[in-house]
Structure formats: structure tokens, C-alpha cells
Write a sequence for this structure.
């Protein structure tokens, strides 16, 4: 089986619906369509999809990662991994790991100082995946999820700026909110 | 109900029209279709339309029409739910009505526990009750919620109504606590009030209590000597709610009365032992409120409450506990109370919310006795300031006083934050220190500047260093430094409790704790030495007096001596004993941390662990990861954070580099083990001394722990530490044995951080397990 990875085609509605389906199945918290559009429309370049190239019956993705990057307190550029999902029949083949790698590579290329995400304390598989890639648990958040579970906030430091408190960093980055209409 | 199809939607929209006279709720409506079309025509494809404050967090709470997981309008309701009427009786006989009213009341009381103790939401508990909805859903013009239904039966119209209003009153009180930001929405509890206005228009406490009392009297009158299980149960529930309504007195009247809390415990115990099987009227509890009111959350099933009456006991006991803070006599007692009451066991959310508000009152006074500034002064006097020259100097100089006052005001603000933080939930508690450390650091720097001015004026106390040189006492800055470093150590060790660290980070965290403890010890030693010297000098005055010939000089010195003996010596003695305690605690953490550092070094010596993140990914940069972990401390002035290289070199210094099969390896291993046992013994000695002092209520003359009011919690805490000395040692013995008999296979083994029973979660063991585990 060969898996190929592609950036999101924002105009492909069937891909959009499949992404939503992949994520809705696995996540403890249901997201509204607004949340998907929030990520996909503003940061389409930080969404990557995995396809099974051997499966000719469909061109729908079997895995996806959804991320964003923006200025954090005007102090550093922070990448954020919002969602990651792989179809259950394709798991344990390193697809999630590869998707995360591709997203990180893109965020490194974009000049991110750090990448952040949250995961459930009980989600040992996700913790193993991210911690194996250098993410560090920076804090625990009490009853963070609607299912009442605690979460860990994880950060992968990419530059020295990630290791200095925001208060002590000079604002060098602006927020790119140009595609947001009020 | 089926989702609305597009055709129906368009038809409905077509029916909408406006003219110049159109109004809604007396507000004139304006047609903005043209403007909307105009702005829409300017939108870029794929643009996101949102308000500036509508961020991702808000977005994750947004709902979605026609999505059954997110659209509460799609909740299906039964016929009974749709047609349920609160203004008719539901029983076929008076007996059945009593059972129904008792059953609804019983469920409401259990929902209070589900909501507060079991973290359920309001709409799935209390607000699922149609009787709550009926009374609280008032018209905008209505001035106040009515305490009545219209069934014509006082059991519903009086008893049930007063109970519903009592529970609502209590819920509104909790809502007020959320606004005071002593607890946090969603994290500590949920007050999703569904936009119901009635919560803000309830009668006064006195009227609610009166209504409840009247209901109780009515039931007594109705049943006379023929009280059955159901009427007795109902009376008890009404009484329990009366107790709940009185809880607000803790912060409205700053009352530390506990009679009503004892009563609540008594009632909860009765209800727990006399559970009745009840059926509520069909449709009386429903998801309908989620469907018909302003709902910000995905649809959720109504909670089925368990037999949870004893949750009320937990709540009442925890509130009783925090009220004991009113009995503090000294600042150290307040400090110790705050440090221990919520430390090992997270207290009930209501007790945690009330504690900071009861301790520091709305007028800024601490338990109504001291101003915050005086409270700071007391903390210093009970630590380092007693008998220091600086006190008289500042009292005599307006200029110095003006210089010091703003700095002490800043300390008061940080101290206030410290006390607020102690009642936070376990995760937020650690984060609170993250912010607090910067404030302590800044306060210390500013106080040092003031005290340096005094030093330049040669008005200061000194103590002798080990090398005989003199160092200034700087009593204010020393106190702030102590508070700061204790907070730093707590922040680091709490990370183990919250499982924030991976095993590979253990060396760095314990080495840093050791380093901090070492710095703290130096400061405590300095203050201790000053106090001992002061006490000695006072005692030597007596000898001097005896040697003097009778006369004016002798009488004058005698008077000075008597005054000092009365006014300063007792506090100096207590301070010395308190310093003894702080030194023991410091030594305890220092010894156990050193033990963990060495345990890690042994594990590294046999190549089972390293202090760097596993290099399985190209994104892993060990130094950056280390620096990220120490970000909190990177900006702290004193004690300075050792650099990455120092951590690496220190670890290498501890590691045995010889071949694991060589005799010299075993010899070194034994040497390290012996040293580690010394650390355990040292820690054990310290802990046992502290425990003895707590058990003796600080009356054995050596150590003052200040834990009189929080004795059980403090004992529990130190006994867990004592447990750790045993589990850590047992784990070491096991490891050494396995290394010696070569039963560890590196490719099959790994190291985990393991919490051991009856041991401190600040010192989990570094346990070798097979990879599967």
C-alpha cells in the first residue's frame, strides 16, 4: 500500500466533508462547521491530507492534519496543531506521524518559533506520538474537555524565542489577520 | 422533530417583512437588507466573517444548525415532556401528591450534589427540572420571582415552590462566586444558566428562609403526629436547603458560625441511611430547557443522580475546615493554613471559592483583623524582622518610611496573590506560581534597593559568613527571597504530582530542586544565626546587669532588659523555632532530591536512561527542550538558573563510567548507595522531627510548625513524605540487586515514574519495568 500526502485543495468540497467525517468520528468534542472553516479557510497551506494511492475507487483522504500559525502575544510565531485523524483501517502504519512531520516542516519553513497543541491526559497514543517528536508537556489543564478530562499543553520548541517568557521578548512579529472580515 | 428543509425555510423567510412601524419588545426594527447585500458583495470568496473577539475558543463553543450533535433544537421530546404542566397536581390522591413532591424535592437536592461535587452542568441537573424553569423563567416586566405555583395544593404551591426558590437562591450565590473569579467557569464548575433571568430576581435571603420555614411548619401541621417516611423525607430536604441558603453568610456577614453546617451533615447522614424509592411525575425532568432556551453547549442527556447525599457532608465539612482560619493568631499560622488545607486533597469547590474571600475581606482586611500591609509586616516580624535595627530606623525616619511603604504595598499584592492561589484547583495552583514568581522576584529587587540605602547609612544588622566575613541581614529582602524560593520549589515538585515531566527530565528537575534548596538553606541559616545572636545578646545583658554596681546606670539597663525580655524575646524564640522548621523542611527536600539525582545517575550508568529527550525525531533539540522546561526560571534574578552545560556536567560527574561488569563499577555503586542511604536517613530525621512537633502542637520546644489549625492535613502531608523515604529506599535496593545479578536487559527495560501508595507524589520512584508495562 502506498500513501501519498498532499496539501489541501480548499475548493474540493468532498475532501472537506471527508475531513470533517474523519475528525468527528474520533474527537471527544464535536466541532461545528465554523471551527473547520476557521482553520481551513485561514490556513489552507497548513492542512495536509493522506491518500491511499492504491485505492482507485475513491479519491477521498484517509487521514488529515489541520494546523494554523499566528503571533503569540506579539512575541513569537506560534504554530498550532488543531486536529489530526487517520481512518481506523489505516492506523499503525506511521501515517499520523508522517502527517505531523509534514506539518512541522511547513511551520519550520514559515519561521515558527514553537508549535503548540493540547491533548487529553488519558490519550497515551497521542502523547507517545508527539513526545517522540520532541514536544514537551508544559502544563496540565484541569477539566479542559467537555468530557471532563484534563489536558496537557505540549510545545515543540523550534527557536530560542520559545524558551523566553513573552514578557521579555520584544514584539517583532505582526498578526496576519488580513483575511478576516469584521 | 424533523430538520427544516430548504423549501420550508425559504417560505418562512418570504413571509417576513418589515414596515416603518415594525417593532420587537418595544424596539423599532430597521430593514438592513440593502446594507447587508452591499457588504456581502464586497466579501472575498472563503472569507471568515466574525466579530474581533470571536476567536478559536469561542468557535469551539459554536453550535451548528441541523447537526444533531450540536443543534439542541433537534432534541426529541416525549408527549409528557411537551405537555408537562407545573400548575396542576400530578397525583391521583393526596398520598401520591406527597410522594411526587417529595420525589421532585429529593431529586433536586441530589442534583445540587451532582452539579457541585460531580461537575455536571446546570441544564442537565437543576435546570432540567420543569418546576425550576417555571419559576425562574420570568417576563422582563416581572420585578421578582414568585414563590408559588397555581395547582391549589400547598404541597406544590408552598413546599415545592419554596424548595425550588431555596435551591435557586443557593445557585445564584454560586454564580456570584464565579464573578469574583475565585473559581472558574467550566474548569471548577459550570453555571450555564441558559439566559434565564429569574436567577437575578430572587427574593431576599430572609424571605427565602421564611418561605422554607413556613413550608416545614405546614407539613408538620398537615401530618401532625402521623408523619410518614415521605413527609419526614420532605421536611429533611427542606431543612437541608435552608442550610444551603445560609452558606452565603460566610462572605456576606463573615460569619464563622457552623451550626447550620453541622445540621446539614446530620441531615445528609439521615437521608443516606433512609433512602426511599421514588418516581417523579413523567416529564417533570427533561432536556426541554436545552431545546427552548439560550444554549451554548451540545445537547446532553439529563443526569440520573446517584445516592449522593453524603456529597453534602463533604461540602459542609470542607467549609467548616476553611472557617477555622478565623482562629489564626499569627501570620505563620495563616501561611501554614493556606499551604496545607488544599494541598493533598482538592477541597470542595465551594470551600475553595469561599476561602480567599473569607480570609481577605472586601475592605482588604485579613479576617477582619489586619490590613494587608500589617499582614506583610507580621510575616516579616515572625521571620526575620524582630529585633532588627532597621525597624527603629524606619519608624524614626519619614524619608525611609516613604521609601519602604510602596515596596511593602507591592509585597502585599503578591502575598494576596499567594493566598488566592492556594485554593485553586490542582492544575491552576501550579500555574499560579508561574506568574507569582516574577512578582516575588521584582519585589525582592526593589526591597534590596531600599535596604542597600540603609546599609550605606551603616544602619543594619550583620551576620558572619562561614569564612568570617560579614554579610548584611536584609530582613525584608530575606523574607521575600524565602517566599520566592519556596514557591519555586513547590512549582517544580508539583510538576511531578501533575505528571508534567517525563522520566528523562527527572534529573534536571531534582537537581534544580537541590540547587534551590541549597540557596534557601543559606538564607535560612543567615536569619537563624541572627536570631540566635540576638537571643544570646539579650541573655548577656543579664550578666552585665549583675556585674554593675547599684545605681542609675544599672536601673536603666535593668529596665531595658525587662522590656526586651517581655516584648522581643518570646517572639525571637518562636522565630528561632520556626526557622528550625523551615530548615528541616528545606533539608528534607534537599536530601530527597539528591537521592533522586543519584538514582538517576545510577540508571544512566547502566544506560537505562538519559537526561535528554529521546532522539527519535529530527525535530528534537535537547538544549532547546531543556531551556523550554526552565523558561519559568530563566528571568529570575536570584538564585540564577544554572546553564544547560552545568546540568550536563553535574550529571556526568555522578555517573559511573567504568564497565558495568568491572569490580570498580560495583565498588562505586556501593559507595553511591551508602551516600544515598545517608540522604534518606537525613530526610527521615527531618520529617520525624516535624511530625513530632505537629503532634505535640508545637509545644516540645524545638520546632514551631504553625499547623495548630490544620494539624491533620499537615500530618498527612509529612507522613506521605515519610512513606516516600521507605519506597525510595526499597526501590533503590531492588535496582542495586538487579544490577548486581545482571537481571536488567537494556533492550527490554525502561524507566517509569511510579507513584507509590502512601507516599508523596512529589517524589515518585524511578522504577525499572519491562517495555510492555
Amino acid at each position: 500500500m502506498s500513501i501519498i500526502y498532499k496539501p489541501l485543495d480548499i475548493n474540493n468540497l468532498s475532501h472537506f466533508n471527508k475531513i470533517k467525517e474523519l475528525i468527528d468520528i474520533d474527537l471527544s468534542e464535536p466541532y461545528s462547521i465554523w471551527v473547520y472553516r476557521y482553520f481551513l479557510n485561514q490556513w489552507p497551506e497548513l492542512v495536509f491530507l493522506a491518500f491511499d494511492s492504491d485505492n482507485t475507487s475513491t479519491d477521498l483522504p484517509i487521514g488529515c492534519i489541520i494546523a494554523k500559525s499566528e503571533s503569540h502575544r506579539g512575541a513569537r510565531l506560534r504554530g498550532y496543531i488543531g486536529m489530526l485523524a487517520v481512518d481506523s483501517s489505516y492506523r499503525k502504519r506511521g501515517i499520523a506521524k508522517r502527517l505531523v512531520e509534514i506539518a512541522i516542516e511547513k511551520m519550520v519553513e514559515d519561521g515558527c518559533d514553537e508549535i503548540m497543541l493540547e491533548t487529553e491526559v488519558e490519550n497515551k497514543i497521542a502523547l507517545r506520538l508527539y513526545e517522540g517528536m520532541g514536544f514537551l508537556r508544559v502544563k496540565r489543564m484541569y477539566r479542559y474537555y467537555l468530557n471532563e478530562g484534563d489536558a496537557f499543553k505540549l510545545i515543540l520548541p523550534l527557536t530560542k524565542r520559545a524558551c523566553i517568557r513573552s514578557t521579555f521578548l520584544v514584539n517583532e512579529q505582526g498578526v496576519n489577520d488580513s483575511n478576516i472580515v469584521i | 422533530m424533523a430538520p427544516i428543509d430548504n423549501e420550508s425555510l425559504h417560505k418562512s423567510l418570504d413571509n417576513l417583512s418589515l414596515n416603518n412601524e415594525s417593532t420587537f419588545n418595544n424596539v423599532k426594527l430597521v430593514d438592513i437588507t440593502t446594507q447587508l447585500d452591499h457588504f456581502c458583495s464586497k466579501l472575498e470568496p472563503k472569507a471568515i466573517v466574525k466579530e474581533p473577539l470571536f476567536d478559536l475558543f469561542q468557535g469551539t463553543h459554536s453550535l451548528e444548525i441541523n447537526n444533531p450533535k450540536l443543534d439542541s433544537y433537534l432534541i426529541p421530546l416525549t408527549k409528557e415532556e411537551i405537555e408537562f404542566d407545573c400548575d396542576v397536581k400530578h397525583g391521583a390522591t393526596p398520598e401520591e401528591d406527597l410522594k411526587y413532591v417529595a420525589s421532585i424535592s429529593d431529586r433536586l437536592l441530589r442534583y445540587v450534589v451532582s452539579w457541585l461535587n460531580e461537575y455536571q452542568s446546570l441544564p442537565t441537573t437543576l435546570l432540567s427540572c420543569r418546576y425550576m424553569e417555571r419559576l425562574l423563567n420570568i417576563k422582563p416586566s416581572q420585578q421578582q420571582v414568585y414563590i408559588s405555583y397555581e395547582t391549589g395544593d400547598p404541597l406544590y404551591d408552598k413546599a415545592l415552590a419554596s424548595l425550588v426558590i431555596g435551591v435557586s437562591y443557593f445557585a445564584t450565590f454560586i454564580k456570584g462566586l464565579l464573578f469574583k473569579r475565585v473559581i472558574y467557569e467550566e474548569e471548577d464548575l459550570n453555571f450555564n444558566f441558559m439566559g434565564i433571568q429569574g436567577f437575578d430576581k430572587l427574593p431576599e435571603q430572609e424571605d427565602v428562609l421564611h418561605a422554607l420555614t413556613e413550608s416545614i411548619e405546614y407539613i408538620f401541621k398537615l401530618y401532625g403526629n402521623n408523619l410518614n417516611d415521605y413527609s419526614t423525607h420532605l421536611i429533611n430536604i427542606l431543612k437541608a436547603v435552608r442550610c444551603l441558603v445560609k452558606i452565603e453568610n460566610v462572605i456576606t456577614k463573615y460569619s464563622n458560625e457552623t451550626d447550620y453546617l453541622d445540621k446539614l451533615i446530620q441531615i445528609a447522614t439521615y437521608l443516606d441511611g433512609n433512602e426511599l424509592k421514588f418516581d417523579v411525575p413523567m416529564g417533570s425532568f427533561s432536556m426541554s430547557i436545552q431545546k427552548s432556551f439560550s444554549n451554548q453547549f451540545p445537547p446532553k442527556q439529563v443526569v440520573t443522580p446517584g445516592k449522593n447525599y453524603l456529597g453534602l457532608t463533604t461540602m459542609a465539612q470542607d467549609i467548616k475546615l476553611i472557617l477555622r482560619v478565623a482562629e489564626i493568631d499569627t501570620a505563620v499560622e495563616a501561611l501554614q493554613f493556606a499551604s496545607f488545607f488544599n494541598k493533598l486533597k482538592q477541597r470542595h469547590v465551594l470551600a475553595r471559592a469561599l476561602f480567599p474571600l473569607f480570609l481577605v475581606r472586601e475592605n482588604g482586611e485579613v479576617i477582619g483583623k489586619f490590613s494587608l500591609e500589617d499582614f506583610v509586616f507580621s510575616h516579616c516580624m515572625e521571620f526575620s524582622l524582630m529585633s532588627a535595627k532597621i525597624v527603629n530606623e524606619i519608624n524614626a525616619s519619614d524619608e525611609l518610611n516613604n521609601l519602604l511603604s510602596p515596596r511593602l504595598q507591592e509585597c502585599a499584592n503578591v502575598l494576596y496573590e499567594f493566598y488566592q492561589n492556594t485554593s485553586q484547583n490542582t492544575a491552576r495552583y501550579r500555574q499560579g506560581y508561574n506568574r507569582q514568581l516574577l512578582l516575588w522576584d521584582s519585589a525582592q529587587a526593589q526591597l534590596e534597593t531600599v535596604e542597600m540605602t540603609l546599609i550605606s547609612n551603616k544602619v543594619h544588622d550583620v551576620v558572619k559568613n562561614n569564612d568570617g566575613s560579614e554579610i548584611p541581614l536584609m530582613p525584608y529582602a530575606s523574607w521575600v527571597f524565602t517566599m520566592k524560593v519556596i514557591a519555586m520549589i513547590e512549582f517544580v515538585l508539583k510538576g511531578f504530582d501533575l505528571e508534567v515531566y517525563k522520566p528523562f527530565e527527572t534529573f534536571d528537575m531534582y537537581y534544580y530542586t537541590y540547587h534551590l534548596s541549597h540557596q534557601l538553606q543559606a538564607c535560612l541559616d543567615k536569619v537563624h544565626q541572627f536570631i540566635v545572636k540576638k537571643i544570646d545578646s539579650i541573655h548577656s545583658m543579664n550578666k552585665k546587669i549583675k556585674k554593675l554596681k547599684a545605681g542609675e546606670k544599672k536601673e536603666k539597663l535593668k529596665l531595658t532588659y525587662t522590656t526586651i525580655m517581655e516584648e522581643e524575646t518570646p517572639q525571637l524564640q518562636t522565630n528561632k523555632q520556626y526557622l528550625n522548621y523551615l530548615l528541616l523542611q528545606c533539608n528534607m527536600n534537599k536530601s530527597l532530591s539528591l537521592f533522586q539525582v543519584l538514582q538517576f545517575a545510577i540508571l544512566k550508568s547502566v544506560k537505562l536512561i538519559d537526561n535528554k529527550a529521546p532522539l527519535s525525531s529530527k525535530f528534537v533539540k535537547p538544549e532547546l527542550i531543556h531551556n523550554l522546561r526552565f523558561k519559568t526560571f530563566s528571568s529570575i534574578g536570584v538564585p540564577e538558573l544554572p546553564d544547560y552545560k552545568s546540568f550536563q556536567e553535574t550529571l556526568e560527574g555522578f555517573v559511573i563510567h567504568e564497565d558495568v561488569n568491572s569490580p570498580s563499577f560495583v565498588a562505586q555503586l556501593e559507595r553511591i548507595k551508602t551516600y544515598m542511604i545517608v540522604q534518606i536517613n537525613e530526610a527521615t530525621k527531618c520529617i520525624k522531627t516535624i511530625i513530632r512537633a505537629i503532634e505535640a502542637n508545637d509545644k516540645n520546644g524545638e520546632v514551631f510548625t504553625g499547623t495548630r489549625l490544620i494539624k491533620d492535613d499537615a500530618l498527612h502531608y509529612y507522613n506521605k513524605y515519610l512513606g516516600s523515604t521507605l519506597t525510595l529506599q526499597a526501590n533503590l535496593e531492588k535496582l542495586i540487586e538487579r544490577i548486581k545479578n545482571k537481571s536488567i536487559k537494556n533492550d527490554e527495560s525502561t524507566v517509569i515514574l511510579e507513584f507509590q501508595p502512601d507516599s508523596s507524589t512529589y517524589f515518585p520512584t524511578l522504577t525499572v519495568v519491562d517495555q510492555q508495562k
